[in-house]
Amino acid sequence: MAETLATLVADSFQIAWDYLEATDELGRPDIAANHLLDTIEAMVRCGERRRLLLSNNAISAFQRFRAEQMIPLAS
Q1: Average pLDDT for residues 36-65, to the nearest whole number?
Q2: Model-level pTM?
Q3: End-to-end CA distance of the chain
């Protein structure tokens, strides 16, 4: 059964969210959610469909963003 794009995005987002939450890297949930979703959606629009690649790239992009913006880990 083919996975819908909505399910792919939701699953990729959840994997990234769970990882960042488990490692205490989530920071402010609103900023994290927006950044993760924007990253995943941009990759999906470019044709990427591999769930773990989407989530891992979203995690890395958020970690870089947070470091560049000096966003604290505490919420």
Answers
A1: 97
A2: 0.88
A3: 39
